[in-house]
Amino acid sequence: MAVPYRDALSKIRLAFPQPVSDRVHDSYFVHSVMRAMDAVDSLKSECPILGERHPLDYSLARHATVPEHGMTTEQVTSELVTYCSGLAIPGHPQTQQNVVPPPTISSLIGVLLASLYNPNLAWDEYSHRLSMAEVEMVAMTSKLLGYDPTRADGFFTFGGTGTTLYGVKVGLEKAIPGAMENGVHEEAVIFASDASHYCRYNIAGWLGLGSKHLLTIPTDSRNSMNLGLLRDQARAALRGGQRIAAIIATLGTTDAFGLDDIAGIVALRDELVEEFQLCYRPHIHADAVIGWAWSVFNDYDFEANPLGFRPRTIRALAGARHHIAQVNLADSIGVDFHKPGFVPYISSLVVFRSRDDLDLLKRPHEQMPYLYQFGEHRPGMFTLETSRSGAGVLSALANMKLFGKQGLQVIIGHIVEMAQLLREHLEGHDCSTVLNRENFGPVTLFRVYPPGVDTFRIKEKEMQDHAYRDRLLAHNEYNRKVFHYVHTEAMAGRGAVLSLTDCYRYTDYGEPIVALKSFILSPFVDEDIIEVIVKKVLEARENIEV
Ligand SMILES: *Cc1c(COP(=O)(O)O)cnc(C)c1O
Asked: pTM score, two decimals?
């Protein structure tokens, strides 16, 4: 007699990839993926977003319950696709919103394979050759960044925030030995610049240092940490009996691609060790989650310029290299492949210059009795995470193989070239001014002014002269309006989706400077799109009220 659950079970079994080779069922699987892609494709239009954006009803969402009976795979696919409606298409040339890259086909296959067989990177018993892929990625990246790959070590973790968390945690263990076991009973501080990522607050809080022990150092006009002020504050902390858990140097700030002077920070740290006869060496973590990709230019011949970039691009790339080439002076480095590595979330790697640093995080074996009885590679003995997905590793590895160093030079070079072009065009009009002119990255921050404003002088006046405060604030409002106009147009398929930053920098008298922001990260951007953006911005001026 047929048992009802048995009937249901045989249907459920068909919903899994088959454990034993079954080509017919494989084509059903691939076909299901194709159907999903087809359905998403039908959401595409001229607009840089899938489908349409409607107001989201979260109160409805809060009433969701598990359905009594399940659906077919086909029905689930149609359901899932509806959740993609309204998403920005990151590879669309008109999407220039933020640091969100389009993933490559190879990286997506990496995610698929790593998800299909579900390796767990905690232990090579559960991930076998995937563990080797992680070791290969650590070696490749270390070499690329200028570390000695025979001494360096690292692992993938949960985002750029995770990479900095690990760097600072190791620093904390150096400054307060045994903190992992005894807790943090002494005062320790973290230094980072005011242009560094806000994850610094989380890290200070979550590590038990307290976010008020995070000391934020002002930046100069190029968004680089002011080392004179860092010296003053570090001395004051040490004199007051506090320890230095870490100094976070940022290479490529999120909003403006500011680059800290690592060599200068290292020299200052060494000077402090001497002066205060410190029994530990304050840890320097380089947050290079964005800037790491520029290291592919470390050995590029800028004179011969074999890839044929324009002079302005060469200048910007060489300028960035000057800073990135020094990143190997840091004790640890954070890398996001899900930023300028064209890999989907999450794919982040933290590398330490010296493998010994990882011992500071190791837990005793007795705490984990059911794991790690054998095998050679057991990152789970010191990682914060227990399970770690192989998806980030395999997708990053896919892109390293797909692009090679030269492919990355081509993409990074191109997006920098397009950003330079945008700046050139914006500077060619007397109503707009580029705020981060001297900057080397793919982000352009600019402001637009109403008719009758002398934009040649306004930038400095607004920045420095308190008498310009009212005009600054009025122009902040004006730029918000320009942004709204450009945004509404873009959502209707006309022009590009840009973003707005509420505070590019503070003026000398403490007011925020609002700016429009273009973050180019799509290899599909070309000169025609740049012209469209500039035209839209000019058109906005005609259509908004002062
Ligand atoms: C994005 C970013 C982070 C945070 O990285 P997540 O991957 O989003 O956790 C940290 N630092 C910088 C400079 C960033 O741009």
From this structure: 0.95
